[in-house]
Amino acid sequence: MTSVLGPVSPRSAEHLAVRPLGLRDAVLTGGFWGRWQQVNREVTTPHALGWLERDGSVDNLRRLAGPHRGLWFSDSDVYKVLEAISWDVGRDPAAGLDAAVSDLTRVLRAAQEPDGYLNSNVQAGHEVQWNNLVISHELYCIGHLIQAGVAHRRGTGGDELFDVARRAADCVVTEFADRRRKDTDGHPEIEMALVELYRETGDATYLDLARQLLDVRGHGVLDANGHFDSTYFQDAVPVREQSTVAGHAVRALYLLCGVVDVYLETGERALLDSALRQWESMTATKTYLTGAVGSRFDGEAFGEEYELPPDLAYGETCATIANIMLCWRLQLATGEGRFADAIERALYNLLAASTSTDRTGFFYNNPAQRRVARPAAATQTRPARAEAPGTRPPWFACACCPPNIMRTVASLGGYLATYSDSGVQLHQYVPATIRTGTVTIAVETEYPRDGAIEVSVLEAGDGPWTLALRVPGWCRGATVSVNGTPWPASANAAGYLVIERQWRVGDRVALTLPMPVRLTVAHPAADAMRGAVAIERGPVVYCLESVDQPEAVDVNRVELCVDEPLHEQVREGFLGEDPILVTATGLARDDSGWAGTGWADLSELPPEVGRRVTLTAIPYHLWANRGPSVMRVFIPAR
Ligand code: FUB
Ligand code: ZN
């Protein structure tokens, strides 16, 4: 297969159910994500470049001496921003962005050792090279450098940044390949990067090393030195035997991305099976309704099955992004719509909520309930992660999330559609133009404000082909018509309505996905949400935010009257969007009768006192844009 401009460009189609499209072939043309992509480039990118200078991340690489500012893996923030910019210039070159890449590449080239080694913390003498892999993040950082270099080369054809990345990779090969070492990095990431480098170069050394690094893990090769345990590092169980996601969430999911990447190139079924098994377990038992994964603050980790407390949810933004990356690889491997469903949930909820509406503030962790209207910490520019602020700071001391958001938004086109010998598959409904060889289609929609999606054929290609349209798992009663005539199709086992015909230029397909407001309950074993409901409409999860409720209504003390109707109303210009808000009847509880210890004998409960109120729910992703607030997604049902 020829290389595509986007993350995950498999070298051969042999183990793909569907094939990816590049960012110049799947182009966002507007809507929520199209606008975000533009602001990501015009506003977030300069913001991020400013912060990388201000927090010392670039200076660390410039100086390579003295104290290292920020966290020891801050090089990776520079690389992720470079990757984001590379996707952007790949879609559409821009002088300012090109210059930023060149400037930073010059810094990296000057910093790089003659043998290709590059790590500002180690080179400044704060760590001995390759000596403390469990903590040092040396391979993790080089992995991000490789991804940036590959993105830049795919985007521009240029070798500047790519050469730096490849030399660093070759240094890793020299140290680790052919089992010269039996250990690996405490933080997975290098595996998927090496596979991408193999894809880009055709040099199987990188693929072999990626596989080796998967193989050695899980045998207790990382000496945890008292910092967490083997499970935290995914080093307790060999990856082919693992049954569920465990330990640090981002690490577990980055590792699985590498696992599926190696499968996509080698066809080793045990790898895919393991990834599917772990993903299914995570999706059924360890994922919040918002798409958050990794519920524990302690170790930024997955909890046990159904351990999903809404108020204590860690839900790191990077973990959900890692799940999007994993889902995309599984989508390519299987062609199944359940992975696009999960991407959709993650995009419209957690990822959308991770960033302020002006796109310069970010959530590192994403709770599903906030009990106290607490602002970001006084040290606002560098809040400790565990403070879990109720407003979005502009950057973090541990700045992994903002650049991860940036590279995801910049490369979002790559997640919209795929193609195969039989035709085109549409996975996400976003205004876009999709081109595969001689076929071009345009998608127009206001989704998810409504479920009307129109696909028109701009170039019809030769002979018949299929258009496959994902029917989201939440949707009942989807219908489709072709040129105004109902098309009698129902979704196939993979979750797609498939239309096969000889297409003509100007053909129009109208897909309707009904999306009435609905109430969702959690699995009974998810104790923390038992007896509560969440409001959803289409892929959008709603929340109650204190600022929208009638005066003196405490969001911590409301119940939702589930037998009363829910009403939708468009709120034009609300936080820069025209979202649909939902109103519901609720009971505002007055618990003054509970004064004292807060406990009561079941047979002597204080009388229930409350007043009926109208509650207003907003899309979860819009919360915390109007100052500190109290917020909840799950509401006790009445
Ligand atoms: O360790 C690198 C990154 O920092 C992880 O992926 C995040 O969870 C944060 O701890
Ligand atoms: Zn992060």
Which radius of gyration do the C-alpha atoms yield? 25 Å
Distinct small-molecule ligands in the complex:
beta-L-arabinofuranose, zinc ion
**Which CATH-level-2 architecture of the largest domain?**
Alpha/alpha barrel
Euclidean distance between termini CA atoms: 56 Å
**What is the overall silhouette?**
globular
> Can you tell me the residue ranges where pLDDT is under 50 for at least 5 consecutive residues?
378-383
The first-level CATH class name of the largest domain: Mainly Alpha
Instruction: State the domain count.
Output: 3
Describe the structure.
There is one protein chain. Strand 7 and strand 8 (452-460) form a beta hairpin. This protein has 15 helices and 22 strands. Helices cover 34% and strands 17% of the residues. The protein has helices at 31-54, 57-63, 75-91, 95-111, 120-123, 133-136, 138-156, 160-176, 190-201, 204-216, 249-266, 269-285, 317-334, 337-353, 401-410; strands at residues 19-20, 26-28, 369-370, 417-419, 423-426, 432-436, 439-445, 452-460, 465-470, 479-482, 485-486, 496-501, 508-512, 517-520, 532-537, 540-545, 558-560, 567-570, 580-590, 609-619, 631-632, 635-636. The protein folds into 3 domains: 19-415, Glycosyltransferase (Alpha/alpha barrel), CATH 1.50.10; 417-512, Immunoglobulin-like; 517-636, no CATH class. By secondary structure, the protein is of the alpha+beta class. It is globular, with a radius of gyration of 25 Å. The strands form 3 sheets. Strands 3, 14, 15, 16, 17, 18, 19, 20, 21 and 22 form a 10-stranded antiparallel sheet that branches. A 7-stranded antiparallel sheet has the order 2-6-7-8-13-10-11. A 5-stranded mixed sheet has the order 1-4-5-9-12, with no helix packed on it. The model is unreliable at 378-383 (pLDDT under 50). The chain starts with 18 loop residues before the first strand and ends with a strand. Bound molecules: beta-L-arabinofuranose and zinc ion (ZN). Beta-L-arabinofuranose binds next to loops.
